[in-house]
User: Fold this.
Amino acid sequence: MKFHTLVLEGDKNTEKEQKTENFPGYSKSAYLHRKQIDNRPPLFNRSFYLCRIIEEELRGIDIDGSRTITICAHQNRLRPGNEKYICDNCFHVSIYYLEPEEVCALNEAKQDMDSTVIEEILEHSLMDIAHRNNCSKDIIQKMERAFIRIANRHFMREERIDKLSKRAKDTGLTAHIYRVLSAEVGEAWYIKITDRKGTVICQENMGTNPGYVDRLSSRLYAKAAWRKNTFMILDRFGNEVFHINIPASLM
Assistant:
């Protein structure tokens, strides 16, 4: 089965305890670093955008037969023993445990290095899984090139979502939907409305930032439609989750 979902899972209790520990502030920089650690979001949120970027870059690749791969930044084993890597071929899920020094690196990463540290650990984990499963040279090279692209783009991704971008037949207006993935916003969305000539007549953010919900995979944003001068997005149940009205003066 082809790879689809990546999760970097931390230990909420450990993260909470780490924030309450009283570390001595020997210097201003040490104090500021500790404050940054205390105030930052959980590991799931910190890594959310990178997991989505990696999913897109590795789409269509079969790494180990699992649809979902969970990288565990803790030692709360779901099975007894010391297995570092568990692949369940029945349910097509895999679990990969990080080493203590990797967990420490995630916990102590400075703000300006957070993206780099997380990406390198995710890359090392997935490449190790690929080698453990004797993936072909072609797959290994595709994965290596994907991680190079991610780094070269500074751990950001912005793309138009074609399945949600629609043209209204009666007015000629076109709604272009964009998704942005980055450390600053997590997952953010915005819409551009263009007229028949392609001129942008309206642009608006969709929802609040930062966001940590995968609106595509969860199908919170499942389909789009125009109804007269109103553009709307519906979830998988057909419920409206976003709409924008275009004034007649702009058409």
Observations:
- The radius of gyration is 21 Å.
- The longest strand covers residues 174-182.
- The chain has a mean pLDDT of 90.
